[in-house]
UniProtKB/TrEMBL annotation:
It comes from Lotharella oceanica. Keywords: Membrane, Transmembrane, Transmembrane helix. Gene3D superfamilies: Ribosome maturation protein SBDS, N-terminal domain (3.30.1250.10). This is Ribosome maturation protein SDO1/SBDS N-terminal domain-containing protein. It comes from the Eukaryota. Residues 55-105 form the Ribosome maturation protein SDO1/SBDS N-terminal domain. It holds the Pfam family SBDS_N. The chain crosses the membrane at residues 142-160.
Length: 245
């Protein structure tokens, strides 16, 4: 299975049915494929002899058509026949490569990596529960913090999705932008990246507020992880809260 570091994709949305079909492609190969097709078509139109068609299989990272590359949902033969008039995935892929929109760096699920991350998360959860069990009064605070974080993340993601769609349709509908967030896949990518950006910027700003003492911060950067050295009383609770996060 291709890695999201070395895989692009092409997305095609039917104007009649509204269904979306996508294919994984090797880096920059889709654009090269289109340029080759255009050059050969121009040569044929000007009287030159056209060579055989471009090798679609060589362009694809995987020789199949997806309904959604994010979920790795493969299009059925019936769906290909209904939309493209053929059950051949390569023929359908050639149409998608020619008519679809070029996308880059799609995330692909990797079961082994996800299983490893799940194991790490499970160990962190066990450690947190063990700490909550042996320290009185920690569990309610921990649960309240988890609920608060979940609510804030959900609200932030909803805000990013709503504002992103509004800006794309109202502010950027004309060329050269052409409503860049009209595709659900692109909108999800924007939503995910924006809420993480907001979270990191907010945490950085809060960290500076909590730790920056104003006198010898640059000379003693170790104070970033030593909140007991913060001299201003109003910042001590904030610094300890930030360190616990």
């Amino acid at each position: 299975m291709p890695s999201h570091h070395d895989t692009d994709y092409v997305s095609y949305k039917s104007k009649t049915t509204g269904k979306k079909f996508e294919v994984f492609t090797k880096p920059q190969k889709a654009m090269e494929w289109r340029n080759t097709r255009k050059a050969k078509a121009a040569a044929e139109g000007s009287g030159g002899q056209r060579e055989g068609g471009a090798d679609t299989a060589a362009v694809l990272a995987q020789a199949c058509v997806y309904r959604d590359v994010k979920k790795l949902k493969v299009a059925s033969a019936g769906e290909l026949m209904a939309e493209f008039g053929t059950e051949d995935a390569l023929e359908a892929a050639a149409f998608i490569l020619e008519k679809g929109k070029l996308r880059v760096k799609v995330y692909i699920r990797r079961p082994v990596m996800e299983l490893t991350l799940d194991a790490v998360f499970a160990m962190e959860t066990v450690t947190a529960l063990y700490t909550c069990y042996h320290k009185e009064g920690v569990l309610p605070k921990f649960l309240a913090a988890c609920i608060m974080v979940a609510i804030v993340v959900t609200l932030t993601m909803t805000l990013c999705r709503t504002c992103g769609r509004w800006l794309s349709t109202r502010m950027l509908p004309q060329p050269p932008f052409n409503d860049p967030l009209s595709e659900d896949t692109v909108l999800r990518q924007f939503q995910t990246q924006m809420w993480q950006l907001i979270a990191h910027v907010t945490m950085s700003a809060f960290g500076l507020y909590a730790y920056l003492d104003g006198d010898d911060f640059l000379e003693h950067p170790a104070r970033l992880m030593q909140p007991w050295q913060v001299t201003k009383p109003i910042r001590v609770p904030s610094s300890r809260l930030f360190q616990n996060k």
